[in-house]
Prior knowledge:
By secondary structure, this protein is of the alpha/beta class. The protein contains eight helices and seven strands; from the N terminus they run E-H-E-H-E-H-E-H-E-H-E-H-H-H-E. It has a seven-stranded parallel β-sheet, with helices on both faces. Helix 2 links the parallel strand 2 and strand 3. It starts with 9 loop residues before the first strand and ends in a 7-residue tail after the last strand.
Amino acid sequence: MSDRFLHGKTALVTGSTSGIGLGIALKLAQRGANLVLNGFGDASEPMAQVKAHGVEVVHHAADMTQPAQIEDMMASAAQRFGRVDILVNNAGIQHVSPIETFPTERWDAVIAINLTSAFHTTRLALPAMRAANWGRIINVASAHGLVASVQKSAYVASKHGIVGLTKVVALETATSGVTCNAICPGWVLTPLVQKQIDAKAAALGVSTEEASRQLLSEKEPSLSFTTPEELGELALFFCSAAGNNVRGVAWNMDGGWVAQ
Length: 260
């Protein structure tokens, strides 16, 4: 795999202004891919980080619950770069509640962002990928796409759904140069997870280190977080020639979570 083996290709990563999405975007940029970032808020800092790798980058603030905005994002990417070669469906939200009290509007939002948005981006990216006979669709699922936890009905349903969507797309593109695969992380130390750790430490009156250990010990035998950089390296593998015949997998990177 050459250092800049993605030179001339364009990657679109949803939910990529921080956390997992940004980590994957930066790895793709390091290997030469131009980037379309997506997410709310000020994107100047993540754009600067991507630009530091000598590639072109744009940002589109599409609300991933809105199909019309997703269509505009995909059309804008194609207009700027010709087509999207690498699509990373990463945008996601979470809500925790027992089923009988789960707010219906939160269910709808989780399913829309975590699952339905990936359907829309995929259906819009596929024609150009097929025409070029090359493309990579990488869906960021979760260990919760393979196993369940209590009080996470919408999240677990959406992530199981994204694994199923991954398999269907992989089968429909099986004789082409387009592949579709899913990454299923366990605990990843993102700003969102750090907030959970800080809240747990405050509630229990323990250090953040102890709160981290307790959080990990509930699910992850390795007692260590996966990093966005590690997830980015797996995405690069899927994009490489070695990934040409890796199709429809749900690759867990979870410290042994689903091996139990």
